[in-house]
Amino acid sequence: MDDLHEHMSRQLMDRNWPHGVAAAVDAILLARFYERYADHAVSIARRIIYIVSGQTPGPLSI
Fold it and tell me: On the CB side of 35, how many CA atoms lie within 13 Å of its CA?
């Protein structure tokens, strides 16, 4: 998700973006919210792993 957010940011900051500033701001905020949602999903997954196994999981790679 981090890579996708970075890629989208680069696309939206490009001078050739044809859709205007308002659309760029909306798109970047949406991308940020999706990235945040993914961070929460990883946090929940780590907690579930702990509840089920009793062990703190290492870094999750997706």
Answer: 15
What lies within 8 Å, CB to CB, of 49 at 6+ separation is 55, 57
Domain locations along the chain: 2-53
Each residue's pLDDT tens digit, 21-54: 888 888 888 888 988 898 899 899 999 999 999 9
pTM here is 0.65
DSSP 9-56: HHHHHSTT-TTHHHHHHHHHHHHHHHHHHHHHHHHHHHHHHHHHHSS-
